[in-house]
Write a structure and sequence with these properties.
Blueprint (H helix, E strand, L loop, with lengths): L2 E5 L2 E4 L4 E8 L8 E6 L6 E6 L5 E3 L7 E6 L4 E6 L8 E7 L2 E2 L3 E6 L1
Parallel strand pairs: 2-11
Antiparallel strand pairs: 1-3, 3-8, 4-5, 4-9, 5-6, 7-8, 9-10, 9-11
């Protein structure tokens, strides 16, 4: 079955960087877009970035210029490189694809 597993979250200081990974299995990974979303406590889940099957990336305005989404089809993995992190980036980050969601990985940015 479809499985998406996020990793790479953690605690980082203001201005720091993290790279999240989303490892996929159970479907033809190279043929599908994958997206990242995030949800902080008490807030709605929000879309962060997406990458098409052909590698075209799109970003929410709040992260554009700081985050980079990429994919490695040989490894069935999508990455989210997050630079210049701010406290407002604190959230659980989820990847989504083919109608399925991962379990999420916590990112906490201290001020």
């Amino acid at each position: 079955q479809v499985q998406l597993v996020e990793s790479g979250g953690g605690l980082v200081q203001f201005g720091g960087s993290l790279r999240l990974s989303c490892a996929a299995s159970g479907f033809t990974f190279s043929g599908y877009p994958i997206s990242w979303h995030r949800q902080d406590v008490g807030k709605e889940r929000e879309w962060v970035a997406a990458i098409s099957a052909s590698g075209i990336a799109n970003y929410a305005l709040s992260v554009k210029g700081r985050f980079t989404i990429s994919r490695d089809n040989a490894k069935n993995t999508v990455y989210l490189q997050m630079n210049s992190l701010k406290p407002e980036d604190t959230a659980v980050y989820y990847c989504q694809g083919v109608g399925s969601w991962g379990q999420g990985t916590q990112v906490t940015v201290s001020s």
